[in-house]
Amino acid sequence: MNRFVTALAAFAAGLALILPLASPSQAQTPSQNWPQRNVRFILPLGAGSGSDIGARLLAEKLQARWGQPVVVENRPGGDGIVAINAFVSAKDDHVLLLSPTSSFTAHPFQHEKLPYEPRDLNPIARISNTLLGFAVPGSAKIASVKDLMAQVRAQDGKFNYTTATGVTDVIFDGYFKSAGLAATRVPYSNTVQALTDLGEHRIQAYVGALAIIQPHLQSGRAKLIAVTNSARAPAAPDVPTVAEAGFPELTFDGLVGLFGPRDMPAPLRERIAGDVRAAMADSVIVQRLTATGQVVSPGTPAELAAAIEEQRSKLAAIAKVLGIKPAQ
Questions:
Q1: Would the pLDDT of 15 be above 50?
Q2: 161 vs 23, residue with greater confidence
Q3: Pairing of strands 122-130, 254-260
Q4: Is the pTM of this model over 0.70?
Q5: Taking 90 as the threshold, does the pLDDT of residue 139 lie above it?
Q6: Pairing mode of beta strands 95-100, 122-130
Q7: Contacts of 74 (CB under 8 A, 6+ apart)
Q8: Integer Cα distance of 215 and 232 in angstroms
Q9: Strand, coil or helix: what is 136?
Q10: Confidence of residue 19 (pLDDT cuts 50, 70, 90)
């Protein structure tokens, strides 16, 4: 009997050592187990936009990597707030926001009250930079940003322009006020109509995604005098940046990032960021995004957070010039 008890105890001890090795999944952290079901990317832009194309290419690569479906869901409208509300209200670490930062960094200076808090958007990964073009009518006698500003001064309030994002609205409003210039910003909910009006001289300048402007450049209805990015566009290497043109105050890089809910743990965000970097190294994605006026620049949660903070600081300084108090 004693031999039997001793043997049984030895077997139990050995089994206790073997079982953890036989079941590694039970020892994994939640970050390692993620995702366990479908992942959704919510976008504040419509189908066919540069960010949408990038999201779908990225989703395809991550789906293969994660072994779970990755679904892209377009929620345009409401100055980006429709998509952000859908993302925040989900309270689900399998629902992520993929968005240009320009869709929300200007919100505190354009809305009296916001339905979300900045910390609800937890940075996961920088994805790309959208190239932003500064365009004028194709037949306009404007060859540079300097020429354009001279016209703005000469027309004294009668110069009409529009920009595609809230961030560029604030930046240009701030510059015109600081320079003692008067220009009329015409609001558009449809960029196609804005570019049609540019070609017909109803507005005299347009600032927006280079990919959207490109067809109008090719038809001759518009011409590019600068890009707002800090570096020249690979798709238009002969076109100067606004800084090179003598107007560094107008510099703005169109940043696209991936965000998780506020309580998403740092290890999971780092892991997803690593997967994004691996996916974005694919040459097909690089080629496709370059063709849509984007520069692939995947980065860490910390890098995305720092870039957003830089944008917010710039906008806050401009808002002071404009006398705008940020929403509480």
A1: no
A2: 161
A3: antiparallel
A4: yes
A5: yes
A6: unpaired
A7: 43, 45, 46, 47, 52
A8: 19
A9: strand
A10: very low
Q: Which two tokens stand for residue 86?
A: 């859908």
Under the banding of pLDDT at 50, 70 and 90, the label for residue 25 is: very low
Hey, what amino acid is at 41?
A: F
Q: What would the two tokens of residue 63 be?
A: 């789906």
Amino acid (1-letter code) at residue 119: R
142-149's contacts with Cβ under 8 Å and 24+ in sequence apart are: 142/225, 143/225, 144/225, 144/226, 144/245, 145/225, 145/226, 145/242, 145/245, 145/246, 145/247, 145/250, 146/245, 146/246, 147/225, 148/204, 148/205, 148/225, 149/179, 149/181, 149/247
- pLDDT on residue 8: 47
Q: Which long-range contacts (CB under 8 A, 24 or more apart) does 57-62 make?
A: 57/284, 57/285, 57/288, 57/289, 58/98, 58/127, 58/276, 58/279, 58/280, 58/285, 61/279, 61/282, 61/285, 62/275, 62/276, 62/279
DSSP state of 144: S
Contact call for residues 160 and 204 (beta carbons, < 8 A): yes
Neighbouring C-beta atoms of residue 53, cutoff 10 Å: 18
**Pair 69, 39: CB distance under 8 Å:** yes
pLDDT of amino acid 192? 83
State the sign of the Cα–Cα–Cα–Cα dihedral 230, 233, 237, 238. Answer: negative
Q: Residues 256, 299: contact at Cβ < 8 Å?
A: no
Which 8-state DSSP code applies to residue 116? S
Helices (H), ranges, the chain: 2-22, 30-33, 50-66, 81-90, 145-155, 166-178, 191-199, 210-219, 266-280, 283-291, 301-322
Predicted confidence (pLDDT) per residue in 50-62, tens digit: 888 899 999 999 9
Name the residue type at position 169: D
Note the pLDDT of residue 251: 95
Mean pLDDT of the chain: 90
pLDDT value of residue 35? 97
Quick one: tokens of 294?
Answer: 């984007």
